[in-house]
């Protein structure tokens, strides 16, 4: 049975469920940042998904990336499945800007997470979920 | 026409061409590290590939990940398409170990690249290309 890792639950806000992935917004206003988690039990690597799920995953990654770019006019989209700390397979889809606090470096560990203003979070959640 | 970014050419050793991607080994003995570059002109984001290329890309990512894990017994595989510095779409597939110099952080910028011994590079290239 699919269960979200407690760390992912704590760090994100649920946005919607797509055919394969649960889509969540990272609680970090430094970057518009989605996390996609395939709703499969015990999977930690992309190559552990079956081919059908992999084909769905890449389409959901592309859809999340396109939506983020359309919503934010991001300069670059970063896509990553790392999982060194939280092993449950999860894919980061992050809108990057040359003015963001980590640019041009990866976001992980760059600066502390910045809380969202309620109004901004509501706006983003509405836009992503629509 | 497909051309590899000069920075990618400088930082890697060619391994083989798969149906979509040029497969390269990063010149960094700190981590067994492949870079996959779709042989398409002017593409910087996964969502800019057409669906057929995306489906091939995820299968080539899975094949590279499985091969790296089989060859190295890695603890975790990191997969990432960042492109903040080199915008040409390229996917990192990195074998991670709890004993590697960046663990558990991402590898980018963690420690300087470490040159390969010729013998180790020859062994890895042979294994990946086979």
Automatic annotation (TrEMBL), chains A, B:
Keywords: Hydrolase
Alphabetized GO MF terms: hydrolase activity
Pfam families: HIT (PF01230)
Stretches of the chain forming a coiled coil according to its record: none
Every HIT domain range: 34-103
Protein name, as recorded: Diadenosine tetraphosphate hydrolase
């Amino acid at each position: 049975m699919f269960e979200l890792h407690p760390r992912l639950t704590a760090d994100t806000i649920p946005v919607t469920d797509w055919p394969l992935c649960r889509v969540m917004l990272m609680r970090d206003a430094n970057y518009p940042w989605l996390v996609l988690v395939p709703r499969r039990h015990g999977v930690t690597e992309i190559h552990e998904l079956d081919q059908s799920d992999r084909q769905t995953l890449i389409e959901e990654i592309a859809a999340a990336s396109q939506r983020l770019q359309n919503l934010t006019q991001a300069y670059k989209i970063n896509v990553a499945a790392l999982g060194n700390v939280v092993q449950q397979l999860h894919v980061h889809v992050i809108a990057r800007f040359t003015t963001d606090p980590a640019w041009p470096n990866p976001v992980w560990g760059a600066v502390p997470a910045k809380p969202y203003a309620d109004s901004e979070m509501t706006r983003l959640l509405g836009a992503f979920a629509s």
